[in-house]
């Protein structure tokens, strides 16, 4: 039995999460760090959407008089994904505003440089 074929979206989401996590850890540029964070968010949304979908079932709208829950997809993962996207966009916008303020103050987006300048300012 081919498990990768049946769990294709879950495998892709794990790979995407790893790419985003490594980007978050290895990059010094703050913008690149937030891109990695957004890749990780997208991986989680893909995973939730993949887990929420069941082949052969339909959206939870009563049709044809079928009231048995077995025939419908669980709407909770889709709701979680939509809520997560809204929160993610808000956090990204706020974070980019903070990054812009950091750039205006320090003149760089390199995390090591910002820490070095911050320590020098503290020592004065």
Automatic annotation (TrEMBL):
Sorted UniProt keywords: Cell membrane, Membrane, Transmembrane, Transmembrane helix
InterPro entries referenced in this protein's UniProt entry, alphabetically: CPA3_antiporter_subunitC, NUOK/Mnh_C1-like
Family matches, as Gene3D superfamilies: 1.10.287.3510
Cellular localization per UniProt: Cell membrane
Transmembrane segments: 6-26, 38-56, 76-99
One Pfam family, short name: Oxidored_q2
GO cellular component, one term: plasma membrane
Membrane topology per record: Multi-pass membrane protein
Family: Belongs to the CPA3 antiporters (TC 2.A.63) subunit C family.
Protein name: Na(+)/H(+) antiporter subunit C
Organism, as annotated: Anaerotignum neopropionicum
Name of the gene encoding the protein in the UniProt record: mrpC
């Amino acid at each position: 039995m081919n498990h990768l074929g049946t769990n294709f979206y879950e495998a892709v989401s794990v790979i995407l999460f790893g790419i985003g996590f490594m980007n978050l850890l290895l990059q010094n540029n703050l913008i690149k760090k937030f891109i990695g964070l957004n890749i990780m968010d997208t991986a989680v949304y893909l995973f939730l959407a993949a887990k929420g979908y069941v082949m052969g079932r339909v959206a939870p709208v009563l049709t044809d008089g079928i009231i048995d829950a077995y025939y419908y997809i669980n709407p909770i993962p889709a709701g979680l994904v939509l809520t997560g996207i809204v929160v993610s966009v808000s956090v990204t916008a706020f974070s980019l505003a903070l990054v812009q303020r950091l750039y205006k103050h320090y003149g760089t987006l390199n995390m090591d440089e910002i820490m070095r300048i911050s320590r020098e300012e503290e020592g004065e």
